[in-house]
Amino acid sequence: MKRKHWTLTPWFIIFGLVMLFMATLMASYNLVLFYVELGVSVLAFGVVIALSLQFRAYIRLTVRGAAEHFTGLDTEYLEKYKYPVAVSGKEGDIVWCNARFRKNLCGGRSPEGDSINGYLPGFSVTDIMDGEGVDIALDGKEYTVYVMPGGEGGAVCHFIENTDYKQAAREYHANMPAVALVSFDNAEDFYTDSDESFSNVLISVEANIQGWAMDYNGLYKRLGNNRYMVIFRDADVEKMIAQKFPVLKNVRSISANRHIATISVGLCRGAKLARDSEMHARKALEMALGRGGDQVAIIRDGNYEFFGGTAAATEKVSKVRMRVIANAISRAVNDADKVYIMGHRFSDLDCVGAAIGMQCIMEKSFKRYAKVVINRDTSMARMLIDYANERLDSHIFVTPEDAIKGVTAKTLLIIVDTHLKTSLESAELYDKCKRVVVIDHHRRAVNYINNALVFCHEPSASSACEMCCEIISYLDDKPLGYTQADALLAGIMLDTKNFVLKTGVRTFEAAAYLRRKGANTLTVKEMFSGSIETYREKVDIVCRCEITNGCAISTSERTDGDVRLAAAQAADEMLSLTGVAASFVIFPDGERINISARSYGKVNVQVIMEKLGGGGHQTMAATQLYDTTMEQAMEQLKTAIDESLKEEA
């Protein structure tokens, strides 16, 4: 029954009294009016009596039904409950409540006729019926509300006050220790300078970390080997997140001899034990370093959150790690009877080139059955595949379907140029192979392959081909011929944009190594040529681009031909435009919308693509959007760009 019945009743009473008074006055003047007004008065009082009887019957039915819903209880027990209880009717109005509800939630007034939803801020009584209860706050107190069905479509609402308990729980979680492990990413870059210069840099970095700890009353400890530990209160971590961890920017302001200092932080939240918190912080730090450093990785309940990551990954000069990895791969191959080398879907020159180089060593140096698993129809490196087929004695490429048929218990799968199961040429082949080796240079994503015998991950490397060159050089590389050298050099040239991006000392050393093995730059250049249709589409995409906030964005509506290759080439081409720091091309691919992103390093396109569910590298990334139109994809991309630019600012 609605509140209007309660509000109309007094007006009927007043109206009836006024008419009765007027009828009394009219009795001596006009008997007709007297009887009319007397009748209206009687009718008004009749309406009041009828409404009152109806409402009382309604209350009795609702309350009785609520009491009968609980075995062994009757109505009088509802009043004796030690916490607030209210009974609502089928239309959501309060028809009865006990004294505690009236005192604690209504300030002593009678709430009958009020909507029960008014005492459930943000909820509806029908939404939480028979649920696990919801938490609400009213007048500075906190309650957990449980709603159970009553009679005649009504409901019984139990308000359990637990303000003190919830406050204690908040204080407990706020004071839980959050362990942060900090690594000075590129300390070795400053070793080549004078001892005094390195000492000054090291002191400045440590001073910033100590200041960060002091700002939040954290416990600071130097662990040695350019590693530090800081323990914060969990509540203080929320403040750091709101400020986007300014300690990263403060450390980047430290420089010497053209080197910029960066740190990586692995921070664990929510662990109940200090030991677990430290262990997960190590895992988070490994993730931050795997993504190129200069960032904070926060892990909580197995989920990651990242901040920073704007600086380019620092090249590691030492090759000791690669020599160790080469020995580990050698042992894994010796224990295998077959070797399959597989890359990512829509394979490019870097992916195919690295696979061709590794296949040669597996087959000729280790005398193992070795094949490259690839889908030629979807590959963007078909010219390289044809080039290898024409010049090599044996057919080295197989389809994923044929490879799956040949898998044995001792088969080794070498994955190149990706570390994500979702990006593999054949996820089914990966699931069937029990022994896996991963070689990749992309910044680490959360859902990386974590069951590899050898996980060779180097985000500072220019390409997977560069990494494979170093690994091959530590193995028996005598069989490596000019065909494989051309394939490896093509991959390096693709990912470095002809030795412009992410090109370090080790990149040129790998190129020189391949040149000694017979690589020909003119032959490699021919692999980058495309058809006139692809060129026209590339030019059309570039001409349609719009530039906002230093980012060039364009679209392609084509779904046939080499639109994927044209989009990638157009994204590269748009970087040559004045005032463009990053480029994006949006194009359809069946039920998906693809976005290809490029930059010269000033804008981290990996961070932007991660906001849309993708990933990649700082200068080269992509994503795929499902159940999205081209217009929606454009809006989502612009929003992600704006958010990323604000975070970097």
Topology diagram in text:
Layout: H1 4-26, H2 31-68, H3 75-79, E1 85-88, E2 94-97, H4 99-104, E3 134-138, E4 141-149, E5 155-161, H5 163-174, E6 177-184, H6 195-215, E7 219-224, E8 227-233, H7 234-243, H8 246-252, E9 255-256, E10 259-260, E11 263-269, H9 274-290, E12 295-300, E13 303-308, H10 320-334, E14 338-342, H11 349-365, E15 369-373, H12 382-391, E16 397-398, H13 400-405, E17 411-416, H14 427-432, E18 435-440, E19 454-457, H15 464-473, H16 482-495, H17 505-516, H18 521-526, H19 532-543, E20 546-548, E21 551-555, H20 563-574, E22 582-589, E23 592-599, H21 605-611, E24 615-616, E25 620-626, H22 630-648
Parallel strand pairs: 11-12, 14-15, 14-17, 15-16, 17-18, 18-19, 21-22
Antiparallel strand pairs: 1-2, 1-5, 3-4, 4-5, 6-8, 6-11, 7-8, 9-10, 12-13, 20-21, 22-23, 23-25, 24-25
Helix pairs in contact: 1-2, 10-15, 11-15, 11-16, 15-16, 15-17, 16-17, 19-20, 21-22
Description:
By secondary structure, the protein is α/β, with parallel strands linked by helices. It is built from 22 helices and 25 strands. The strands form five sheets. Strands 7-8-6-11-12-13 form a six-stranded mixed sheet. The protein has a six-stranded parallel sheet with strand order 16-15-14-17-18-19. A six-stranded mixed sheet has the order 20-21-22-23-25-24, with helices on both faces. The chain is elongated, with a radius of gyration of 36 Å. The N terminus is likely disordered.
